[in-house]
Amino acid sequence: MSERTETGRPLLICDDQPLVDELLRLAAAAGVSVELAAAPGDARASWRTAPLVLVGGDVVADAVRLGLPPRRGVVVVSHTADTALFQGGMSLQAEQVSVLPEGEAWLIGRLADVLEEPHGESVLVCVVGGRGGAGASTTAAALALTAMRMGMRSFLVDGDPLGGGIDLVLGGEDTDGLRWPDLVQTRGRVSGSALRAALPRIDELHVLSWDRGDRLDVPPEAMRAVLAAGSRCSDVVVADLPRRIDDAAAEALTGSTTALLVVPAEVRAVASAARVARAVRAHAADVRLLVRGPAPTGLTAETIASSLDLPLAGDVAADHGLPVALDRGEFALGRGRGGLGRFCKEFLARLVDERRAA
Hints:
This protein is α/β, with parallel strands linked by helices.
């Protein structure tokens, strides 16, 4: 997933010279060059392969009549809006009809996104603890670090306002950068590269965490915008979520590739996890189980998976040195050492293979 290819140029299909000039100016502002075609018939070769297609309002009807195959990443652009324009956009299955000059900022951002589109689709892993102290934050941090050390672009999001801050897990609470309270008003399309540049970077990992203030919630619109931006410029996004599924957590779970429920191998923990699992399954299409030892009564991972009716992603033995390392801010998992490090490598490799095969 980390292999990259040179991104192609956006395709602009338009024969309205003032509109062409305006769109070329916006493309220059976004730092991209475009391929220009005056008519839809001249653009057949690039229609399928261009990372983004801008269709001028003057040629929308021609594009519809030509019957170009449906594809993602089509934007209809015009200086004026009317019913025919929006109907044409619907026929082309366009992601947006952008009317200038009102849509300039959005369109510059969309063009800039072409520079950061991942090679292949990213994965979003949401990690939830089956009970308090289950080790969800540690698991989330380990997954994000492991992905980075496997050569993938990784992004770690702390979605648990009462979790103490995942930057503490990584020993980076004093690292400069934006935290959630700075981003709660975020809406719409956000540049992924700009977001990553503004966030704390801990051990080369981009992390969005909480400050030590009183803000205890994230609007779902802000969570949606942040995860979408992160996904556009990352191979793996890991979100650490609270056990009580709030609106922001529900937003993350709905868009997740998979949700990982972390459950200690204890009877009371399994009873608690049953309630959490029901809440997670209400939003996530794919929920898997990670069992963490030790098992005081000999409770097996397979028995827990059967009890919760969840597929078993893996089980991890206790790492007796981990609590001390966390207290000292010396978290260093992800290098393949210990059971959790090995699990993360195997889990991520399997998840990426499944994504490619889908």
